[in-house]
Each structure stands twice: as structure tokens, then as C-alpha cells.
Fold this protein.
Amino acid sequence: MKFNHQSKPMLAAFAAALLVLPFIIDSLLGHGWVRIADFALLYIMLALGLNIVVGYAGLLDLGYIAFFAVGAYTYALLGSPQFGLHWPIWAVLPLGALLACFFGVLLGAPTLRLRGDYLAIVTLGFGEIIRIFMNNLNAPVNITNGPQGISSIDPLSMGGFSFSKTHELFGVDFTAVHLHYYLFLGFTLLVIFVSLRLQHSRIGRAWMAIREDEVAANAMGINTRNIKLLAFAMGATFGGISGGLFAGFQGFVSPESFSLMESVMILCMVVLGGMGNIAGVVLGGVLLVILPEAFRHGAGPLQQALFGKIVVDPESLRMLMFGLALILVMLWRPAGLWPSTQRRRELMPDETVAQQEQDTVYDAAK
Amino acid sequence: MTQPSETLLELSGVCKHFGGLAALSAVSLHIKRGEIYGLIGPNGAGKTTLFNVITGLYQLDEGTFSFDANSYACCKPHLLAQAGIARTFQNIRLFANMTALENVMVGRHVRTHSGIWGALTHNRATCAEERAIAGRAHELLRYVGIHRPSNTLAKNLSYGEQRRLEIARALATEPKLLALDEPVAGMNATETESLKALLQSIRNDGVTVLLIEHDVKLIMGLCDRVAVLDYGKKIAEGKPEDVRRDPAVIAAYLGGEA
Amino acid sequence: MDILFQQIVNGLVQGSVYALVALGYTMVYGILGLINFAHGEVVMVGAMVALTVLQILLAAALSSVLAVLCSLMVAVAACMALGYGIERVAYRPLRNAPRLAPLITAIGVSIVLQNLAMMIWGREYHAFPMPFSNGLHELGGAIITDVQIAIVLIALLMMAGLMLLIHRSRFGRSMRAVAENPSAAALMGVDINRVISATFMLGSALAAVAGFMVSANYGIVHYYMGFMLGLKAFTAAVLGGIGNLRGAMLGGVVLGLIESLGAGYIGDLSGGFFGSNYQDVFAFFVLIAVLVFRPSGLLGERVAERA
């Protein structure tokens, strides 16, 4: 995933496309879909964060949404009428990220020596614990407002510039969803940048070594516990940041948004797209946000057209299709839709690999 | 630091039990700097257990273990790697889905320092370090004789190359002691011969080598000193030619061969 | 003191159900090393099928004993077929795929089953018919119902039967062989695919019985009931040491007891700050604590370093 010189014009075109995308979506599909694009970006951020934990370091985390929840509730509690606090975004977002990171270390320190599937269930339990606390911390002292959640959260704003109002620039109206799109795009690109840099670094190599063989990695002098903890903390931090953005964007948080199913969805984005490959994870995120929405919009009218009436509940039909899609895609491409080059090669027969290596630069044999 | 002593690794009275089974009982040995030290014994004699104790995979139950004049009675593998013990595994354990080059680069981890901040900013120190890591890794690949494209996945290398890659990865940690667990297992005569040459040149570069081997001929031809384990006890130690005449050894192990 | 006994009784009943479901998780894990995420939904399907058959048979004025037995058998058969199908469709094609691929298909199956159930049986809670009078007994100050006694007894019976099957029969021997080393077992002439299919069917049969039990105990069936139950049962399996049959049983009972004692006493322990709605937190906290101190679960053997 390194960009060489030939790809520069491509990159510029791609950037331009990303910039005008919300307007294209707006005119083609309607305003609602720009909002969906915003959510897609949030989920991509989450998926990229989880990718560090699952894709790079190979730690199966089934409670990742908990860190998202920590970030979201931090923002919500410090920027809403709940406690009458209205802290600015530059204080709340980093604090949420820091708290999420803290919880990541708190959970990881005692549990990261567990084998894969034990770790999975422990993280899952942790996710549930966080959710249950959010759900019940309204009595005897009301902190989280329980199942009702916290509403009228301060919108995202920076130095007097509010992202939730329409601004006019060059005669073009930028509505709230457009502005959030650009904000989230910026954060997503930042997360991608961080992921890329980490992937090709000393730390990234250590993560992958642990994923491949923990005993060997340890024997080669890698402090596996600390390096795993680092992956966990990084992932949690990204989760916390997107959580804060989510709270500010939606203006409302409730425990319902942080169920186990959400963790599972994010894991699906990572695995379905292609673990360890940033482009794949982004693709997974986009698909898993858009597919259910498309089914939601399509399921009702399609039945009308076919049978002249609604035969089955569109909501369950949508989830049914989604479940089927998960199964089919995994059966069709077990390594994900867009696996990393290494995994791709792994799935190819040996001769092709040999051929491919002939074509690449020889840098060892001189 | 005083002047380094002649002894690099010293074990005395090392015991290791698994349940009621004594895998090692009161084993004492010392390895001198710059030698190739062989450890032989019949199957189940405790060779690999001893090896795992030295490399920190097992904690010893009794006895002392000192390396490079420091005591490591109970120590984690990564700290021993830091101290200068690098190992290979009997059944090859490479990072299968990483390239040959990356495998060796991982070995440099313990001697390099750049962290998250360096990775994100690509500051000068980090870039220089990355270049040095990659350069050293290329060198080591050539040194052990892997002349394939360095981006070949480890799992796609031939068996002999995988063994060599493991050695390259271990050498990347700049070990004082290179511990090899049956490095020629499964190799044919030619491959064994060239590996022997590689081990000799590693020793000539100043690295002490500890070798566990089934291949008695290799041990006899290569090692400066040999220890023989049987049922978790050391039954002989000394120059190969002396050891092979030792009656206890003949009885326990070499049997008809000697 | 009454509360204590009562909570122990409740915990044992709930724990028996967990244990039966946990056995399904642990058997599949022991053999394939994968978390059968859809297992909880199999429990739900079992309960739903039993409900429908029972309603039909009772409406047809069949004798209650016969109706209950028939519905249980139909549910078991349906779940076995479902278990077989799940393995064939979602797991077998991915046996050599990257480790997480089957986890995702399992999640897919779980979503599909849940939503199919919602389409067929609707979103509402159904009352589970109870054709017998459910007598109450007093046991050292605690109240226990007929159904609860039946649950504990049947669970014990099924577990004993399973242990016999696995340790005394030819099939059990092949199953243990496959769990130990699939390729070696195959070389020795064990038909791995058949063993795996049979394992899934066996686990699903237990799940169907468990589904029937919970429904009878609470008198309520719902399309979402499998999710939390499955989660708890999986927790129980891990608590006991996943892959270990005795561990699953122990883990199930222990989890059941922890939950019910936790729910009963958490209020007193925390000075009224936490209520019984923290019951699940309690269960997960204990899980984390157990795993921190015993990383392979209560009965799990320490997995030797694969050096």
C-alpha cells in the first residue's frame, strides 16, 4: 500500500472524488444517504482501529464497541445538559480517547496472556459489562440516564465554527451532514495514515510476528505482553475518538448503540473486507454500512412490486439478506474481499507465486 | 564491567520436573566463549527441556543459571534474547506469512528502539534505523545463503532454506550464544555439509554456538566439547573423541555404533 | 437463610440448562477448534418448534404426556437436522480457511436464523403451554417446582448418557480421536466428516432439550431468547475450560449458581447501590477473574507450549 510516483495523478483524482462525493450522493440518492456516508466513515474508523488489534496483532476482540461507548459517553456526559457541563471539543475528544485507552490497558493487562478464544470471550464479557453499567447507572445516582440515554448533546464545533449549521462557501450550501462528512473524512484519513505508518514499522512487524507465532516472537526478544498491550491501547484509542465524534454527530447516545451485535458488525467489516489490509477494511466498512441500508430501502418496495403487498417485515428481511450475504461472501472469499498481498499470495498456487516473484525486483540476490 | 570471564553460560544443579517426572536432575555444565558446544543424548534424555530452560521457555525448579556473568534463574524468553541468547526451534517456527526479509527484520527488534512516535513521524532517526535494519537483514540473508527474492514468504521457502532463515533471524538479534535445536534434522548429506560450514563461519565471527543434535557425526566433526545427557542426567562431558570412548556413553547411547 | 436455599435451587436449575447448551459449544470446539456462534439460535429454534408442535397436538386433544414427548422429539429431530445443515453449509467449506472465516459465517447463520424465526413466529412473546399442573415442593425452606425437578433430573440423565457415549462407545472413541488429531484419526480409518456431522447433531439435540427446558421453566418463548442464553452457555464452557466436557457441565452449574446468588445478594453486598439488574455483570466479572487466575478455565488442562 505504498504510493509510488506513477500513482500520484490517480491519488489526486481519488482525493477530488472523495471531496465531491457528498454532493454526488446528495443529488443522486438524497440527503439521507449523505448521513449514511457519515456513519460509514465513523464505522470505517472503528473498523480500522479494530484492524490493529485483530488484523495486525491477531487478537480476537469481541467487545471492541465498549471503547466506542466509553468515548461516546465521555463526550455525552461532558457536553450535554445531563450535568450541565459544556466542555469544548478539543478537551472532550482527547479525554474520551484517553479514557478508552485507559480501559483498554485495564482490560488488556490481566487478560492478554490468554489464548485466542479465551481472550475473545473475556473481551465480549467486558463489552457487556460496560453496556450493562451504562444501562443501569441511573439509580441510585443518575449518571448515564439509563436506557433512555443522553440527549441534546452539544454538536461538534471548533472555535465558533459549528458543524451542525449550514454554512455558505463559494455560493454553495454546506449543510450539517456535508460538514460532518468532511470532518469525519479528515479523521478517517488520519487513522488510515497512522495505520499505514504503523504497519510498516518496527512495532508493526512485532505485531505481525506475534500474530504468526507468539512463542517464536517472544524468543526473538519481543516483549509480547507489552506489544500486545500497545495494540490493544491503540485500537481502544481509535474507538474512543470515533465514539466522541459519534456522540457529537448524533446528538444522542443510549446503551442500545453499544450492543454485542455492534462489536460483531465491526469485526465482520474487518474480516469480510480483508484482515490486515487497510483498503480491504475500508471496503468492508463501506459495504456493511451500505448493504443493510440498501436492503432497508429496497426490501419494502421490492415486495410491493413482486407481490403487491408487504409479505414479511422489511426489517427482518433486511437482516436476513445481510446474514446470507455474510455467509456467501465468506464462502466465496474466505480471506476476505480484498486480502492483503501476502494473504492473496498465500491463496495462489505455488507456480503463480514463483512467476510473480520473477516479476518483482530482486534486491537480495546480487 | 570487569574483564569478561572465559565462561559464557553456566548451569549448576539444574532440576526440572513435570509432575512426578524429573526431566532434568542436577545438571551442571558450562559453555566457554567462542566454542561450539554439543549436547547429545537418546530420545527423551532431556535435551530439549534443557534447551527450553536456557532460552527461558521453562523456568527451572532448582539450581542456578548464569549467562555472561549475570544470574537468570527465572527469566522470560525476551529478556534472555535481550541478554544475548538466540535460538532456533526443532520444528521450524518461522513467521510463515511474513516475507523472508521481514522475518530477519523482526530479529532486529530487540536491538532497535523506534516506537510509535518514530513510526508516525518518520523522523530522521527512525528512517535511518529502518534502513539499517533492512540492510542488516539483507546481509544476513546472503550470509546464511538464501539467494531468493527477499519478499518470498517464509512458508514458500524450501525446507533447508527455512532452517537457514531461522538461523538468520536468530543472528539478527546479535546473540552471544546461538542455540540451535537439531538444525540438520531432515536434511540430506549435502545440505548438512553446507550447514556445517555455515556454523563454523558463525563461530569464527565470534558467536558461541550451542548445538543439540541427533546426528552424531555432525557433532563429532564440529563441536569443540560435547555433553551427553541420559534420563535427565549428564553422564559425560569433554572433547568429542574422549566422550565417544567413555564407557557410560557407549552403554547409554552410542551402543553398537562406537 | 431461605433466600440462600432458594437462590441455590434456582441456580442449579438454570445451571443445568447452561450445562446442556455449553456441552454443544465445547464438543464442537474440542473437535474443530471453532466457536459455533449459531448454537444459541439452535436452542431458540428447538424451543420454537416444540412450542408449535405442542400447540397443535394440544389443540388436537392429544394426551398431555404424549404431546410433550412428541413435541420434544420433533424439536430434537429438527435441531439435529439444523445442526447438520449448519455444519455442511457454513463450516465444512471453510475447514482450511483462515481462522476467523468460519466465525463470520457462524455469525451470518445466527443472524439468518434469528430473522427467519422472527418472520415465522413473529416478534411477540409466546406463552409456552403447560399441560400438567406444576406442583410446588418445599425443600429446606426453598420452593421448587415439578418442572424444575424434571429439568435437573433430565439434564443429569443426558449428561450421564453423553459421558457413556463418548467414553464407552465406538463413536465416542472416534470422536475423541478426531479431537486429538484429525489427520491421524483419518489415517486410522475414521471418517472425519461423519464424526463432525454427528458431533454437531449431538450438540444440537442437547440444545433442543435445553430449549424445551427453559421454555417450560419460564413459560415464555421469544425469537431472541437464544442469543443471551447462548452467550451465557459459551461463557460457562469457557469458565469450565473449553473443549472439556466435564468442564462444560461444571462451568454451567457454577455460572448458574454465581448468577442467582449474585442476583440475590449483590444489593446487600454493595449497600443497595447495585440491584439485581447487574446480574450479568456479576457473571462476566467472575469469568474474567477466573480466567485471569486460571487461564485455561476451571478444568482446562494447561496447554503445553508448542515448542
About this structure: The longest strand of chain C covers residues 136-139.
